[in-house]
Backbone:
């Protein structure tokens, strides 16, 4: 009962699938604490072992192959389990086709097995092929196969379409910025970080490594070398961003000799070692602002995508978007063309009207 009340209060009756990773960890913790409160102990649940039994002549060779991988190649348990799973599926297919001898296995049989794998799990098919190559080569070297056709097993090429980037409306971005509490030192720092992410589209790692030398107040510009591409980037130091940074430096930043602008809020006051802390700053702000983030990214990269989308929506040419976002080429900026629905609607062609006689004709497909 206590667990349900806590979860209902914190997660507002969302299902477990709708929780973030951090929220699911918290959910699991509540379950453990409730279990301990009820029973006085916490049961450690082990993952059940799969009954992978390799029987028959082919199964015996598979066992020898797996033992060889374990001893000679010194495979750890995880990759060894992957080999077991893949070869168990292959052995099951052999038994289904009533093929019980390795000498009867042909390249066509292997290809038929690969083609029958679940295409929706395209990410695991290359691992199946890799396991089969190793097993076939091993079987040939040990004299179980007359021909080594491991190199003739075709590769699996999966072309995956990139997911649409997460973008937010102008109103949502403004709500995010306005929701930040700016009276504390942490609030002043977070406000400056989110402004930079929303107005300039800097990557999280570049914000974490932003130094005083990167700020050129005389020319109102920000100049830095991007961590991802290694290329120089120059952006305008907008007035609201400059004011937010000054406010943080004067009234929020701890006294430190660090060259980096943004520091941790707790002692020892040092710079952010990675981009993760910057990402968490933005994510927490999104949640506190009450913005709908369901099925969407809500970190600094989402603000970066939003900036690129807004520029494209305002008919900004791709080279300019590439320059502002620090892309290596305009090809990267074409990523945003997939969400420019306004421009896509302008390309829509009118569907020509179908003559009335088409539907009234006799003997056509519609009248059979």
Residues:
């Amino acid at each position: 009962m206590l667990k349900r009340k806590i979860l209902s209060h914190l997660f507002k009756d969302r299902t477990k699938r709708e929780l973030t990773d951090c929220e699911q960890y918290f959910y699991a913790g509540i379950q453990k604490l409730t279990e301990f409160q009820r029973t006085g102990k916490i049961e450690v649940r082990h993952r059940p072992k799969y009954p992978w039994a390799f029987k028959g002549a082919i199964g015996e060779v598979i066992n020898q192959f797996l033992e060889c991988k374990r001893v000679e190649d010194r495979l750890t348990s995880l990759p060894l389990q992957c080999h077991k799973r893949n070869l168990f599926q292959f052995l099951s297919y052999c038994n289904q086709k009533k093929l019980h001898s390795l000498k009867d296995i042909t390249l066509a049989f292997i290809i038929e097995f690969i083609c029958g794998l679940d295409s929706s799990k395209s990410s695991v098919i290359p691992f199946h092929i890799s396991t089969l190559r190793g097993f076939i080569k091993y079987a040939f070297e040990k004299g179980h196969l007359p021909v080594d056709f491991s190199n003739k097993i075709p590769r699996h090429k999966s072309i995956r379409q990139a997911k649409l980037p997460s973008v937010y409306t102008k109103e949502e971005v403004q709500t995010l910025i306005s929701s930040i509490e700016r009276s504390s030192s942490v609030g002043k720092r977070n406000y400056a970080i989110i402004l930079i992410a929303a107005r300039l589209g800097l990557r999280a790692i570049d914000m974490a490594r932003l130094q005083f030398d990167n700020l050129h107040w005389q020319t109102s510009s920000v100049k830095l070398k991007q961590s991802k591409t290694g290329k120089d980037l120059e952006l305008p130091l907008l007035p609201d961003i400059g004011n937010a940074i000054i406010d943080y430096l004067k009234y929020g930043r701890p006294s430190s000799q660090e060259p980096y602008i943004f520091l941790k809020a707790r002692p020892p006051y040092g710079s952010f070692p990675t981009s993760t802390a910057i990402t968490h700053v933005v994510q927490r702000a999104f949640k506190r602002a009450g913005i709908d983030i369901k099925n969407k990214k809500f970190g600094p990269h989402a603000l970066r995508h939003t900036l690129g989308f807004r520029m494209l929506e305002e008919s900004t040419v791709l080279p300019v978007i590439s320059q502002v976002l620090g892309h290596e080429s305009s090809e990267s900026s074409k990523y945003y063309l997939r969400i420019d629905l306004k421009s896509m609607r302008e390309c829509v062609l009118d569907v020509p009207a179908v003559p009335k006689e088409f539907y009234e004709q006799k003997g056509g497909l519609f009248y059979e």
Observations:
- The chain has 16 helices and three strands.
- The chain has a mean pLDDT of 83.
